[in-house]
Amino acid sequence: MTREPLTTELVAVLVALLGEEPQVLTVGADGAAESGPSDATAMPPALPSGPLQASHRSLQSGLRAWVEAQTGRNPGYVEQLYTFADVDRAGANGRILSVSYLGLTAIGDNPNGWRHWYEFFPWEDRRDGRGQDAHEALARRLRDWAAEDPARSAVRWQRCAIGFGLEGHGWSPELCLQRYELLYESGLLPESARRSGPPVPGLRLRYDHRRILATGLARLRAKIQYRPVVFELMPAVFTLGQLQGAVEALAGRRVHKQNFRRLVEQQDLVEDTGERTTDTGGRPAKMVRFRREVHLERQAAGTKLPIPRSR
After folding, report:
1. Confidence label for 302 from pLDDT (cuts 50, 70 and 90)
2. Mean pLDDT of 190-199
3. Strand bridging mode 49-51 / 6-18
4. In this structure, which long-range contacts are made by residues 281-288, counting pairs with CB atoms below 8 Å and at least 24 apart in sequence?
């Protein structure tokens, strides 16, 4: 029996904030919007990645080496995300097993390679009614897909309604991976195994890296509700308004201002620096810093931030 060659690939989902907008680090050529005219010669970007080599001391050290080699950046905080080993990921020279990592870092002085992550998932940004028309058009196409198979129509539509917050179901930010996989299954993405009409708006990534990115987005959205990882993306000092804006940007939804501040203050997540800023355009806002000891204090109980689940 001939054994299929197996390659282990290391993939990095590196996230940063530019102001209050989430960015993801990519390498390679810029992608073209799939909703516009297609360019068959255009190569979409990819996530930083490379094969595990004998010289790498560990998976994580190999990932850091590839990120630094391809982008010149230190990936900062990283945690293992997920291992992708589906049979249909096989390459020309055998099967590919991808070990992905989620990293939180800062953009710094070099903006090259950073892309707004809602360019890849425009349906995920629900702040202030953004993309409402596109969301309604998407719902119509998903309903058509559900009706294609009468035997499974009800189940298909129930999945769509729950995933996309339709027919009275609340919108859950952390279900972004399920939404991506529904769009893939329904043939509405350019990378779908079967295509059903023109793809929905959004940039694609090389290989199945958009699926890996969706997995990272789902992990981060879930994690900011019970661990203070958002502070890894914040500057040394910031205002509570900037912190709220960062959480809203990651979640793709607005949160209630008073509830947010009450929860942050009740859990002693930040401390006052004694400084004030007028850069907010209104009354002087106090500057705060993250209490690093929270990592230890909240390790068991968790740290909850209010992520809205309503429509």
Report:
1. very low
2. 87
3. antiparallel
4. 285/239, 285/240, 285/241, 286/239, 286/240, 287/237, 287/238, 287/239, 288/237, 288/238, 288/239, 288/240, 288/243
